[in-house]
Specification:
With about 450 residues, the protein is of the alpha+beta class. It has three domains: about 150 residues, no CATH class; about 160 residues, no CATH class; about 40 residues. Helices cover about 25% and strands about 25% of the residues. Strands 1-2-3-4-5-7-6 form a seven-stranded mixed barrel. The radius of gyration is 25 Å and the shape is globular.
C-alpha cells in the first residue's frame, strides 16, 4: 500500500513537471511537510528556488540548495476561485527576475489587463507602480500553471519609497505622515469607516502603519471625514480638497480606471499614500487589482452598470471640479496619442513569450475560452483603443462656475486679487489654494480657484 502511494505521488510529480513548458521562468515552492496553504493570514514555512532556462542570471537557489520562505493565501474574490493567489515572504531580500530586492512578493492570477494597466500607470508617471513578471509555478511538485510574480504595495526601499511612521505612534507632530491606506470593498479589522453622504460608508483599510494608537485612529478618521466633506463642497470653485489630495496624481489614477474600464476603480483596491513633507498631500496609488470590463463604453466607468452594486466613492464629485478636470486633460494630452503605440507594443512584447505556457494553462484549469493568448491580446487592445477613442471625445470639463457674460459685451479688467484660505488679499497668488477674483468695469466679477 505504501509502495502504491509512493508510486502515485511519483507519477503525479513527473506528470506535473512535464506540464511545464520551460518557456518562462519556473518558481518551485515546497512547504514544510507539504502542508496545504489554507489561510490568508497564517504563513506556512517552506523553501523556493527559481530556474530560468532562457536567462541563467535569473536563477536563484537550486533543487539541492533551496532558500527559505513563508507563504500564505491572499485576495478576496480571487481566493474563492479554484486557482489560488499567494503572498510570499522571503527569509532574506532578493532580486527576483530582475525586479528590485525585497522580501515581499505576490503570485497573482495571470490576467492580461493587469499587465496593460500597470504599464499605463508607469507611462502616465504615477509615483510608483508595481512590476510583474510571467512565471510558471510548481507547488509541492504540482504544476499550478501560469502566474504573474509581482512586487507588492508596501512602504519600503525598492517599493513605495516614502517615510513610514511606526505602529502605535502617539506623537501629534508626526501622525499625519507616512501612511498607506486602501479604500476597500471588504470589512477588515485594520479599518475605519466614515459616512459618505447619508447612505454610503467609506471603508479605509490601513496597511501602514497596521496597528494604530487611539491618537492615530482618531486622526485618520478625522482626516478622511474632512477630505470627504471638502470633496462634497457644493461650491466647487471654492472647494479646498486639493490642499489634502494631490490633484495630478488623482487625475492619472482616474485615467487608468477609465481606459481599462475597471468597475472596481475608486471603491475597491483604491490605494492612497502620504509622505513626510511640509506640504505633503495624499497621493492616489499605487495601482492594484486592475480589471477590464470588455464592454462597449457608453459613459464614464463609474456611471456604467455592473452585474453587482457598488459605490463609486468621491469620483462623482471630483469630476465636477474644474481643477480636477483640467488635470485630467493635461495628463491625457501628454499621453494621447503620442504614447499609445508604445503601450500597445509593450502588451504584445510582454504576452508573446507566454503563449506556449498559456496553452498549457488552458488545459490545466479547463478554460471555457479557448482563444490563443495572441487572440486574447488582440481583443484586449481593441477594447482599450475603443475606450481611448471614447474618452478622448468625452474629456471631462467640470461644472461652469464663472459668471456668464455675453460675448458681444466688451469688458475691461479693473482689478485682479488673490484670496487665500485665511481671507488675506494680495495682487499676487499665495502658495497653496487661492481664489482669483477678477473685477470688470461693468461691475461683474469672476472667481476661480487656482493652486500655486
Amino acid at each position: 500500500m505504501r509502495f502504491l502511494s509512493l508510486f502515485i505521488l511519483l507519477f503525479f510529480t513527473l506528470y506535473s513537471v512535464k506540464a511545464q513548458t520551460g518557456t518562462l521562468p519556473v518558481v518551485h515552492i515546497e512547504t514544510q511537510n507539504h502542508k496545504a496553504i489554507t489561510s490568508k493570514t497564517v504563513y506556512v514555512p517552506g523553501t523556493y528556488y527559481i530556474i530560468d532556462s532562457l536567462d541563467s542570471s535569473h536563477n536563484i537557489g537550486s533543487v539541492e540548495m533551496p532558500l527559505p520562505l513563508e507563504i500564505r493565501g491572499r485576495g478576496n474574490s480571487s481566493w474563492k476561485g479554484a486557482k489560488k493567489p499567494y503572498k510570499i515572504r522571503l527569509a532574506e531580500k532578493a532580486s527576483l527576475l530582475g525586479m528590485k530586492r525585497n522580501r515581499h512578493w505576490a503570485l497573482l492570477k495571470f490576467y492580461e489587463p493587469t499587465v496593460a494597466g500597470m504599464q499605463l500607470g508607469k507611462i502616465l508617471g504615477m509615483e510608483w507602480t508595481p512590476s510583474t513578471r510571467p512565471v510558471e509555478v510548481v507547488l509541492n511538485g504540482v504544476n499550478l500553471g501560469l502566474y504573474l510574480l509581482s512586487e507588492t504595495n508596501r512602504i519600503g526601499t525598492n517599493r513605495l519609497d516614502i517615510y513610514e511612521q511606526p505602529n502605535f505612534n502617539e506623537d501629534p507632530a508626526t501622525i499625519p505622515y507616512g501612511w498607506l491606506v486602501e479604500v476597500d470593498n471588504y470589512l477588515a479589522k485594520n479599518q475605519i469607516s466614515i459616512k459618505e453622504k447619508d447612505k454610503w460608508k467609506l471603508n479605509i483599510t490601513y496597511h501602514s502603519p497596521d496597528s494604530l494608537s487611539v491618537a492615530q485612529k482618531n486622526w485618520l478618521t478625522a482626516e478622511f471625514t474632512e477630505i470627504t466633506a471638502r470633496i462634497y463642497d457644493e461650491y466647487k470653485s471654492y472647494s479646498t480638497w486639493e490642499e489634502l489630495i494631490d490633484v495630478d496624481e488623482m487625475a492619472k489614477y482616474f485615467i487608468v480606471q477609465e481606459i481599462l474600464d475597471n468597475s472596481d476603480g475608486f471603491h475597491g483596491s483604491f490605494f492612497l499614500h502620504k509622505d513626510y513633507a511640509e506640504d505633503a498631500r495624499w497621493m492616489a496609488g499605487p495601482l492594484w487589482d486592475i480589471s477590464c470590463g470588455y464592454r462597449s463604453k457608453t459613459d464614464y466607468t463609474f456611471k456604467m452598470k455592473t452585474s453587482y452594486g457598488f459605490t463609486p466613492h468621491w469620483i462623482g464629485e471630483l469630476i465636477k471640479d474644474e481643477d480636477f478636470c483640467e488635470a485630467v486633460r493635461n495628463a491625457w494630452n501628454d499621453f494621447y496619442p503620442a504614447e499609445v503605440q508604445d503601450w500597445m507594443d509593450y502588451v504584445d512584447e510582454y504576452l508573446q513569450p507566454c503563449s506556449e505556457a498559456f496553452e498549457e494553462e488552458k488545459v490545466l484549469w479547463d478554460y471555457a475560452d479557448k482563444k490563443t493568448l495572441s487572440e486574447r491580446a488582440d481583443t484586449l487592445k481593441s477594447v482599450l483603443l475603443a475606450n481611448m477613442e471614447w474618452f478622448n471625445e468625452h474629456l471631462p470639463e467640470g461644472i461652469e462656475t464663472m459668471v456668464k457674460v455675453s460675448s458681444s459685451v466688451a469688458r475691461k479688467v479693473i482689478s485682479v486679487q488673490y484670496v487665500n484660505l485665511s481671507g488675506m488679499h494680495s495682487s499676487k497668488p499665495f502658495k497653496g489654494v487661492n481664489i482669483k477674483e477678477i473685477t470688470y468695469d461693468d461691475g461683474s466679477r469672476v472667481s476661480t480657484k487656482i493652486i500655486k
